[in-house]
Amino acid sequence: MLTPAEFLKYTQWSGIATLVFAALAIASFVFKWGIRFRLVGSTGFMVVLTGGLFALSLAPLSRTVIPGAVRYNLVYDNGGSQTVIAIPKQITTTQLEATLRQAASDLYSYGRLGALTDNKLTIRARTIIHPEPEISVPLYLGKVKRSLASREDSQMTIEIYREKFAQLPQTTS
Question: Which residues cross the membrane (predicted)?
């Protein structure tokens, strides 16, 4: 992942290229070249590109990685206070806790519409089990509740339903 310092370096090079395109566009109007309007468009594009790179150099694009977390898929997200993630059947309680922490970090956003409820984001983790052929049942293994107001939530609560782990199919390997 690129760092803000690298984006700043690319912004400088893009700024130089923008100035070159601007000089070419001015020269094309002075000498009445046929491609003068295309050069104006290219210069405009370079201005937008340079502005975007500059904005990326200001805001850090960092993703927190929680050790021990497994891959999950987002199943449901109402854009507010409720989400559901799908996890693999072969997960341990320690992996589930790390995965819930990872999901809480990944799914946090300032723009969530949870202020109308209890101002908490609830992320539930589930897997699908098949107790009989052609029957699928969702099995919720845990949940995490975190604040929607601040990115660093020291009051985050994680619940793991240990009794549900007994319903998971046992692997023989």
Answer: 12-31, 43-61
